Amino acid sequence: MAMERTLVLFKPDAVQRGLLGRILTRFEDKGLKVIGLKMRQFERGLLEQHYAVHRERPFYPNLVAYMGSGPVVALALEGKGAIEVVRKLMGKTNSAQAEPGTIRGDFGMSFSNNLVHGSDSPEAAARELALFFPAPGELVTWTPANLGWVYSVKEELS
Ligand code: UDP
Ligand code: MG
């Protein structure tokens, strides 16, 4: 499995409900490396671009309005197979059906207000990271002190 980067958004409901710390802890506890973090009330145009694949879907107008209704935290994470790892930690889109132990399964009840976004493919991750972290230097290259314990240096990082 390759080292990957992926975009996570803490949606407005996560911010308003005071869940930022607990959700970030899920990703840190798993061993994913934080390489970018910012809070903004993102403008409509950017959110429309971010969700462009859903443009024809009936929920699209509400989705864009909800995502622009308050502050959002954008998080860039790095790790082996990070895209799929993050999607698994998030759980199913409909929070009411998401498995206990997942972020949506533990903290949510809603299909739309489902707390987090995570990129769903390498192509989406590259596109979304460039949208939310466009400036050079916004993503930080660093080596966690515990890297050699999170992974087997010999087997996985060679
Ligand atoms: N969504 C919704 N109603 C639906 C499907 C999706 O409100 O029937 C919202 C929900 O917030 C979801 C987002 O649109 O997270 C994007 O949908 P997608 O199918 O990409 O789900 P995700 O990748 O976030 O699990
Ligand atoms: Mg999606």
Secondary structural class = alpha+beta
Order of helices and strands: EHHEHHEHHEHHH
Summarize model confidence as the mean pLDDT: 97
Give the number of domains: 1
Name of the level-1 CATH class: Alpha Beta
Radius of gyration: 16 Å
CATH topology: Alpha-Beta Plaits
What's the overall geometry?
Answer: globular
Taking pLDDT < 50 over at least 5 consecutive residues as the criterion, the unreliable ranges are none
CATH superfamily: Nucleoside diphosphate kinase-like domain
| Strand composition percent | 15-25%
Can you tell me about this structure?
The chain is of the alpha+beta class and 158 residues long. The chain has a single domain, classed as Nucleoside diphosphate kinase-like domain (Alpha-Beta Plaits). It is built from nine helices and four strands; from the N terminus they run βααβααβααβααα. The chain has a four-stranded antiparallel beta sheet, with helices on both faces. The protein is globular. The model has no long low-confidence stretch (mean pLDDT 97). The protein binds uridine-5'-diphosphate and magnesium ion. Uridine-5'-diphosphate binds next to loops.
Structure at a glance:
The chain is of the alpha+beta class.
Write the layout of secondary structure elements.
Elements: E1 3-10, H1 12-16, H2 20-30, E2 33-40, H3 44-50, H4 60-67, E3 72-80, H5 82-90, H6 103-107, E4 116-118, H7 122-132, H8 147-150, H9 153-156
Antiparallel strand pairs: 1-3, 1-4, 2-3
Bound molecules: uridine-5'-diphosphate (UDP) and magnesium ion.
Uridine-5'-diphosphate binds at residues 54, 59, 63, 93, 111-112, 114, 117, 120.
